[in-house]
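Hello Y.,

Per our agreement to keep a running log of every chain we model this quarter, I'm adding this entry. I've kept the format consistent with earlier entries: sequence first, then predicted structure.
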Amino acid sequence: MNQLGKSSIYISELTLGCMSVGTDLQRAKNIIDYALDNGINHLDTADLYDFGENEKIVGEAIKQKRDQVIITSKVGNHFDKVKQTWFWDPSKKHILNGLKASLQRLQTDYIDFYMLHGGTIEDPIDETIEAFEELKQEGLIRAYGISSIRPNVIKEFVKKSSIDGVMMQYSLFDRRPEEEILDLLLRNQISVLARGPLAKGILTEHGIHQIDKKGKNGLLGYSKEELHQTYEQLTSINNPAKISELAFQYVLKHPAVASAVFGASSIDQIKESVTKNITHSLPEQIYEKLKVITKALVYEAHR
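Predicted structure for the entry above:
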């Protein structure tokens, strides 16, 4: 278990992102139960996922074991469930109201970790922070943070708030956080929740098919051909670890990263991800080799 920032929250090295569990309650409950029974104690959801339905499903699945589970949810998208539309709203009023609605859907009286679900440098950041601080003082949330890949926004929150975590995209195919943000957060004792560690399923044993499906137009700084070439190089060094294990181990290697967040729409996908090797530290030699094989991309916007 890893500490989340300076908070009293400890989370497993893998987090189940619940967005993909679907809307069939029993099926979703089986997926969540399997994850919790196999060492994962941290579930990630958001009010916008399925316009509130995802929170309801998570709440139903964990209501008998609430004290054993760390729940993360997110706020900031003002949505209309009937019209299935939404707009960005980081106002204090919306955050306070959003929390109340999320608590109701999750059938709980507190959320462990509450995040702003995005954000821009034009937002009323001081007002947003005030809302989260108020919720924390009232005991309705234990800690808060932001889900963002925008360096300029993250830096503002580091400077002005007491966030304990930042969720950001980070994988072997998206090494942009390594440029400066990971070290900045580490220096400030703020944890990273690395989402997308398997790069849309490309960094799995089914990667070739996923490249043809989800990487046909390339991915970030990689063309489809480069994805194939890099995938082949990665699979050539992965004995005895599987490529998905390497992918998890790589993002967890940086001391700022507390947990790798992966989605699953079936128990089989969790079985593929939850293996004893994930918590083994990646040998330095292989870590450096992975850095040579992949590209050290940098953020080009929101600097």
